Amino acid sequence: MTVRTRVAPSPTGDPHVGTAYIALFNLAFARQHGGQFILRIEDTDQVRSTAESEQAIMDSLRWLGLEWEEGPDIGGPHGPYRQSERGEIYQEMVQVLLDRGHAFKCYRSAEELDAMRAQRQEQGNSMALKPSDLILPAEEIARREADGAPYVVRMMVPEEGVCVVDDMLRGPIELDWSQVDAQVLMKSDGMPTYHLANVVDDHLMKITHVLRGEEWISSAPKHKLLYEYFGWDMPQLCHMPLLRNPDKSKLSKRKNPTSILYYERMGFMPEAVLNYLGRMGWSMPDESEKFSRDDMFSHFDIHRVSLGGPVFDVEKLRWLNSLWLRELDAETFASRFAAWGLKPERVLPVIPHIQPRVEVFSDVVPLAGHFLAGLTELTPQSFEHKAYDEEKLLNVLQFGLWQLEEIRHWSKEAIEERLFAMARLLDIKVRDFLFPFFMAIAGTSSTISVLDTMALLGPDMSRSRLRHAINVLGGVGKKKAKKMEKEYRDLSAAIQAELNGGE
Ligand code: GLU
């Protein structure tokens, strides 16, 4: 048997360090066994998936040195590797399940489902909806069918009993069937859900081992049952511990930059980022902290993954990066620095903003040095301004940060729309309103548009600088945050209403 592993990201946002972490362990496992590693794009959520996100995921994985043998860009014998191009396969497979009685068409309306769930909640019952709750009497099905009512396809699931799922790290895991609902496999628009597409593709792509985040454990019983319904062997499952913030909560962009693009822009070396991801729950036999991808692959053993939640700590990563940087000879340092700082993708978009404002090249760095910087040099005095007292300043920065967290597709327009709506609602002149953003993002207010700058820096770098500014100003403690959140709720609703009204 050839070991085949895969990473299967959904292209719905910036490339996440968690995706790279899972990719690394899948690749290491495949390499250890002389096997193959595949990239599959799970883009069945057509509303949230974008081509840019897919491209950024591929670029980021390559930047880190995580190369795949088969994937959407390079093809392979089991393609297509993009789920949106595999619609016919899922249609066929869902029909197999319907024909065998392992799935049923469910004509229940959203209102009926809500009512059932509300009733369950009232009774303090398990929330899982079972086929017996959902299947309508035959005449009613016929009537709705004749009316052309929309339907989804759901899988049959046992009402009770225990499902045992074997996990490579955890051994047998017992899960109660009573908690498992009659999962939707195909939505009313004919698109498959994650569960169906994932199982069908892992089988057809001959995946032998599935290493994925532990948040998927609760899906495992459904997957196991689907393999049984189809009569296929199930790949071995291995649920990896989730990455955590230093405070042990699940790694989130609210607390930590999570986009690989951020680490690239901050000037981390890909070797160091990969090294650090390799230390998430895993260690070399000799416990060495600094190791290369190939060192890791030649010593890899999945059973040395420890299940305690690994902490992704940016400070620790900086330290590790410094070890990698110091080892470079001067020539390599110079060429890698130039390749990082002056790469055309980074520099070209900035030029139109600075060219009209400089007389000599030496004006460039004072004007636009913040494009190559990390966090801005700031003191509380940097923010002194006649329009602001301390409280108002913190409010504007924190509310602005929260608004920016809401943006799904990062662009100048999206940033402007939200911040300008906020300025209007808080009744602050745009010029005054933008001042603290200029300071936080650029360290000065006499430079190019701060909205353009944020758009070019990307969401994680912009948010990091705002968070840093808030900390320089004394930070927002728990108590203060509670008070602010209360105020923010109304403001946020009003901003949303303005945005909706403008559509
Ligand atoms: N598309 C899923 C994700 O984004 C894949 C989960 C899996 O590996 O099964 O995490």
What's the helix and strand layout?
Elements: E1 4-7, H1 17-32, E2 36-39, H2 51-63, H3 87-99, E3 103-106, H4 110-123, H5 131-134, H6 138-146, E4 152-155, E5 162-167, E6 171-176, E7 184-186, H7 194-204, E8 209-213, H8 220-230, E9 236-240, H9 260-265, H10 270-278, H11 293-298, H12 314-326, H13 330-341, H14 344-347, H15 351-354, H16 364-368, H17 390-405, H18 412-426, H19 430-442, H20 450-457, H21 459-472, H22 478-501
Parallel strand pairs: 1-2, 8-9
Antiparallel strand pairs: 3-4, 4-7, 5-6
Helix pairs in contact: 10-12, 17-21, 18-22, 19-21
Bound molecules: glutamic acid.
What is the helix fraction of residues, given as a range?
Answer: 40-55%
Strand order, sheet with most strands: 3-4-7
How many alpha or pi helices? 22
Count of individual beta strands? 9
List low-confidence stretches.
none
Global shape: globular
Distance N terminus to C terminus?
55 Å
Query: What ligands can be seen in this structure?
Result: glutamic acid
**Structural class assignment:** mainly alpha
Strand content: 5-15%
- Estimate the mean pLDDT confidence: 95
Largest sheet: 3 strands, antiparallel
Instruction: Return Rg in Å.
Output: 26 Å
